[in-house]
Amino acid sequence: MKNLCVLRDCRRRVATAALLVLAGTILASRTVKGQFPPSPSQTFIPNGTSFLNLAGASQTYSTAGGGIDETGPFFQSLGTNGRSCGSCHQPSDGMSVSALDVQLRFDETAGTDPIFRTVDGSNCDHNIDVSTLQGRSSAYSLLRTRGLIRIALAVPSGANYAVTAVSNPYACNETNVISQYRRPLPATNLRFLSAVMWDGRESTPLTGTTKIVYANYPGALEGDLAHQSVDATVTHAQGDGTRPTAAEQTEIVNFEMALSTAQSLGFLTGPLNSVGATGGPVPLATLPFFISINSSVHALLPNGPEQPGGLNAPGDNLFTSNIFNLYDAWSKLPSYDFGASVARGQTIFNTRPITITGVAGINDDVSLGGLVSGGIPSLTGTCGTCHDTPNVGNHSFPTPLNIGTGDPGASNSHVNMGGLDISYLPQITVCQLVNGQVTDTCKTTSDLGQALIDGNFDHVGKIKGPILRGLSARAPYFHNGSAQSLLDVVHFYENRFGLVLSSQDELDLVNFLSAL
Ligand code: HEC
Ligand code: HEC
After folding, report:
1. Closest residue by CA, ligand 1 atom 20
2. Staple 10 to which of 52, 97, 107, 257, CB 3.0 to 4.6 Å?
């Protein structure tokens, strides 16, 4: 297919000098497969290596050892099915995987690359036939087209809801173990995390891990990441639990914590650290961070909120909505310059008011771990109300939210609350239990989020807001891949929150997000 050949070129390693890239000079072709063992020529990716994507190129920069050593445990097969962490977290794809690259791998290997394993790579793990190419194409369709991995989690005992129905298009209809479909979160920029996994399940005492707060950061985060590396090997790589060893866990965590990833080149703007801009991964490596560095919801509360754990964080009540300043210098460029469009997009992100309603985690209850109760029915905020970590964009403190990316729209169950197609996902209905009796207070969603971890009906669909750097390397977006492009993301916010943007505004915002 012609467009795939173009994309294959996109994966070639290119010269770091962006002008050479713009001139079309593509050096040393290489693809990063995360396969083990890597061929001798594929064992080290020096800092400064650019990986092309549809908007330009991204780079992953390591503060340890001058680059990415692909002989480390992150890239080794530690389980039984040939997968490594690198199967789903690739340097070429901002340490996640783009759906287009998964499709390429499918085409190159006729669907036999280790990412294609029925344990969680196929839409369901039973009633499938992967003995033929046709069978594999259909079994792995969600992975090929949306980059989705099946995350099957048991309903916790003692949940205050019952799963009354599951309508899964791929036959995984069990109501005790729920199949949900999620994008690999990038295994980079992890220094900025306030919760590990979409549903925070690697950062909660419920799973033997630790909630990350100001007082225990970064130790708790590192402990959670070590635990996660074992869980990931057991589930995705069908390991027996003996690997990664303690030493390998430490190596994986140190490897991950040293990485910074960002878009480094825009095809229309040139290098993202030119003309006074501070894009690209290198500034991320020294960016200050602590939990609650820019508390947003906290700032709405009287008297400076307490962190669970008893300590006020220095960022409490100091919220600024000016989350990003990378492209301040480009606001002085002539308006026709593409850099000026990126700067306008940054201003929209930082300042355009959004009316936030119906978001579980803000509008129902900003409970902050049970210390405060009551919600804010309607809140005028900005993109940064939820994406508040300066120049990174995730929540600077643990704040699971449900913005409706996995919930059916009011009048059409095939689209989510922002009008994006979710017909390819299961519909899961849960009803609240009162005194052990099923009530008719029910919700239907495609992903139970935090509620599948803590069993709390009020937490249905709550997930974390992810880091917004390196987006261009890893389409599609949202936990369920429902936004195929960044324009889809912007349309979601327009439909969901009544945000009014002109087509120029939309373009500016997309250009900005593409340059992160
Ligand atoms: C089959 C694909 C696959 C493999 C293999 C895999 N992951 Fe992941 N990874 C995912 C998915 C999907 C998620 C998000 C799942 C969720 O949140 O429910 C994820 C999430 C993560 C996160 C959480 C990041 C964040 O922002 O919270 C880290 C860290 C991570 N993986 C590291 C690893 C490591 C280390 C390994 C190897 C031991 C590994 N992964 C192997 C698919 C994979
Ligand atoms: C009310 C809170 C909230 C507001 C306001 C908000 N977001 Fe988000 N954002 C989230 C959450 C939560 C997610 C994760 C949703 C999911 O994955 O399903 C998310 C996800 C995203 C993603 C996808 C990232 C990825 O890796 O898939 C992008 C891009 C994004 N938001 C951009 C924006 C922009 C631009 C704005 C302003 C127009 C904005 N957000 C406003 C909470 C918010």
Report:
1. 185
2. 52
